[in-house]
């Protein structure tokens, strides 16, 4: 299980959201960089993401989407409209990630990785961003 979060980070469009602080329990999932998580054991994982965004450079929809092994996942996406620099809006999603049988705790084979990216046409200030990843079975 891991919980990672950030505060007051500006994230351009089409860019992975950085998570700068974390709490980790066990070795089933780890944060390998400020933007990437690695699943180390086969099984089903629950990914819970929430954020508050504001101060977009342009009015429009801020979109955050789950990527697994570099591929956008339709089951993990959220968006919110931002119309001015003073708007603050909440966004969240919950999604499952299935990790195949070829992963081991020592990562000796190609591990499954995950990122959450701003996958729309505008970026934003993430006043807070939080992700919790839990292995279910």
Account of the protein in words:
The protein is an all-beta fold and 137 residues long. Helix content is 0%, strand content 63%. The chain has no helices and eleven strands. The chain has strands at residues 2-11, 15-16, 21-24, 29-31, 37-39, 43-54, 60-68, 71-82, 88-99, 112-118, 124-135. The strands form two sheets. Strands 2, 4, 5, 7, 8 and 10 form a six-stranded antiparallel beta sheet that branches. Strands 3-1-11-6-9 form a five-stranded antiparallel beta sheet, with no helix packed on it. A hairpin with a 2-residue loop joins strand 7 (60-68) and strand 8 (71-82). The chain starts with a strand and ends with a strand. The mean pLDDT is 90.
Summarize the structure.
The protein is mostly beta strands.
What are the salient characteristics of this protein?
mainly beta; 137 residues; 0% helix; 6-stranded antiparallel sheet
